[in-house]
Amino acid sequence: MTLKEIVADILAIPDKETIHEDLSPQNAPEWTSLKHIKLITTIEDTYKVKFSFKEVKSLKNLAAFITVLKSKGVSNEIFE
Questions:
Q1: CA atoms of 74 and 40, how far apart (whole Å)
Q2: Which of 8, 27, 53, 60 lies in disulfide reach of 16, CB 3.0 to 4.6 Å?
Q3: Quick check: 78 and 49 in contact, CB under 8 A?
Q4: Mind telling me which SUPFAM superfamilies this protein's record contains (predicted)?
Q5: Domain limits for position 53
Q6: What angle, 0 to 180 degrees and rounded to 10, lies between the N-to-C axes of helices 62-71 and 33-47?
Q7: Cβ neighbours, 10 Å, residue 23
Q8: Each residue of 4-25: pLDDT tens digit?
Q9: Number of domains in the chain
């Protein structure tokens, strides 16, 4: 499952092509605090990673998720 698919599913965004790296709670009203936690836990489970508290605090937009995932060795193709 790609990161776009995870985000589309959790945030209920029907067209995953509208999902971009700048997507954040500030520009996506469907991105609530509860859905943010769901994103974190689903991404951890899907990619078999664990985010530190410091990393969780840095996850302000989709680009931040991608950066942290890449730093953990997750493939560059996750966002396609």
A1: 15
A2: 8
A3: no
A4: ACP-like (SSF47336)
A5: 3-79
A6: 30
A7: 19
A8: 999 999 999 999 899 999 999 9
A9: 1
- The pTM of the full predicted model, rounded to 2 decimals, is 0.91
For residue 31 the two structure tokens come to: 């991105």
**Three-class SS state of 47:** helix
Average pLDDT, the chain: 95
> Degrees (nearest 5) of the Cα angle 49, 55, 56?
90
**For residues 56-75, average pLDDT:** 96
Cα angle 12, 18, 1; round to 5: 60
Q: At residue 76, does pLDDT exceed 90?
A: no
d(CA 32, CA 53): 19
Cα distance between residue 60 and residue 46, in whole Å: 20
Contact between residue 69 and residue 37 where contact means Cβ atoms under 8 Å apart: no
